Amino acid sequence: MSPSLVELDRLQKRYGTIxxxxxATARVDGKIIGLLGPNGAGKSTLLKALFGYLRPWAxxxxxxxxxxxxxxxxxxxxxxxxxxxxxGGLDRLARLPASTVQVLGAERAFFxxxxxxxxxxxxxxxxLHPQIQxxxxxxxxxxxxxxxGKVAIAARRDREGSPVLPELKTAFERREAELRxxxxxxxxxxxxxLPLDGAPRDG
Length: 203
Prior knowledge:
By secondary structure, the chain is of the alpha+beta class. The chain has helices at residues 43-50, 73-78, 90-95, 98-102, 107-114, 130-133, 137-159, 166-182; strands at 6-15, 18-28, 58-63, 66-67.
């Protein structure tokens, strides 16, 4: 028998002495599934464990028979599934401009900025991406902007049923290398708005 698309087996997660998941077990075979339960039932914890945002205390998470336990969220996504709850689903994510994708999850910081209490946020949930987390602060905003653009394109292609192009990842990694290479270079006297190579900045 072929493995299920997604299989959770006796998944457990604790926060100190609080048991958030107690041997949760489920199988998904290519159907639309609703996860229902009262507040505190462990719905968010289960989804976060599935998509790599939390490591379960015990149990297994399988995608087509392959374990996802211990993988980062970006590594889980590379295997073909993703978590888009903050955007309200793939349909809405596919309609959002890249500038909105960049700051998803930073709503509180954005409203603080509108009240004049804080600078504009440079990123929201995209900060969870390891390449942004590990980037110097001086380039995180531009790197998040580049990633948001690629996410927006990928979401639109995914929504229409087209394959997500590997060139998107390649282009992002190339942009990351450019930004890291430029870091530390000083502008010439006079405060030119151009980098030392004379090429205009593209964000």
